[in-house]
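About this split. The held-out portion is used to measure sequence recovery: a designer receives only the structure tokens and must propose an amino acid at every position. Recovery is the fraction of positions where the proposal matches the reference. Here is one held-out target exactly as it appears in the evaluation file.
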């Protein structure tokens, strides 16, 4: 009888030990899973931060940003100025321009993109700090200037996809009155990793020169003086209006608008910046 009691006691103790072992294993496993989940969330968050300022639509799967730490800025340009020629000898062209911080050295960086190219774009007098080539349907330039940890990548869209309409201008803030003397030749949209995050719209216009119609050896009209006078009258009462040299700026609707009148270039440059959530 005593032996039976001892047997039951031993069996009970063994069952209790097994239960305790099972519970401790489950607890540790749950803790491990929880830590893995936290680490996964942290990794996902870190990965997201890297690309916070990369435009949706950039073909990152085709042209990765090598050893990226974070994006400094990304922009989408459309240029249709007949006087401007791209790195690939185009006069009408669209491209993404990405500036980012990289952990790669200059030699690593340039070698990576050379190996990525389906075909390298070879020039007789090439820039040693830049490589050019083709990746699928894209034409690509990659540059690294050695002294900084900054990489520069441009991805040109195929010529048959060219259009003057910027797909990122859906929410373009129409805060600048155009003049009949202005002919648009480029526009861009970008995300800037600065001042808490900014959006940027840019456009530049060529100023039509009326020329010397009366043949007296001088221009009949000083177009830039006319334009400056016009825009001063329109915007002088706007918030934080200033006019310094050739540069006029003011604020409107949460945006800072800057207009540069460059007589030497024969152009007017428009820049509109707002907070990332504007």
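Reference sequence for scoring:
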């Amino acid at each position: 009888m005593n032996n039976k009691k001892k047997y039951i006691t031993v069996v009970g103790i063994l069952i209790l030990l097994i239960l305790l072992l099972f519970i401790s294993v489950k607890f540790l496993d749950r803790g491990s899973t929880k830590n893995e989940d936290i680490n996964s969330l942290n990794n996902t968050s870190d990965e997201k931060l890297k690309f916070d300022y990369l435009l949706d639509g950039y073909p990152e799967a085709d042209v990765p940003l090598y050893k990226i730490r974070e994006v400094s800025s990304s922009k989408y340009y459309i240029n249709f100025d007949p006087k401007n020629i791209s790195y690939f000898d185009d006069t009408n062209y669209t491209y993404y321009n990405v500036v980012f911080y990289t952990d790669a050295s200059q030699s690593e960086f340039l070698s990576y993109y050379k190996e990525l190219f389906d075909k390298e774009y070879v020039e007789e007098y090439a820039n040693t700090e830049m490589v050019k080539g083709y990746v699928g349907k894209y034409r690509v330039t990659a540059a690294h200037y050695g002294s900084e940890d900054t990489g520069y990548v441009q991805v040109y869209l195929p010529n048959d996809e060219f259009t003057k309409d910027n797909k990122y201008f859906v929410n373009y803030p129409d805060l600048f009155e155009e003049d009949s003397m202005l002919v648009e030749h480029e526009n861009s949209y970008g995300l800037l990793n600065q001042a808490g995050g900014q959006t940027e719209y840019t456009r530049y216009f060529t100023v039509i020169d009326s020329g010397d119609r009366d043949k007296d050896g001088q221009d009949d009209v000083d177009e830039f003086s006319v334009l400056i006078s016009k825009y001063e009258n329109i915007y002088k009462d706007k918030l934080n209006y200033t006019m310094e040299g050739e540069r006029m700026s003011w604020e409107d609707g949460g945006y800072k608008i800057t207009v540069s009148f460059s007589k030497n270039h024969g152009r007017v440059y428009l820049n509109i910046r707002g907070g990332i959530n504007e």
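Annotator remark: The chain has a mean pLDDT of 86.
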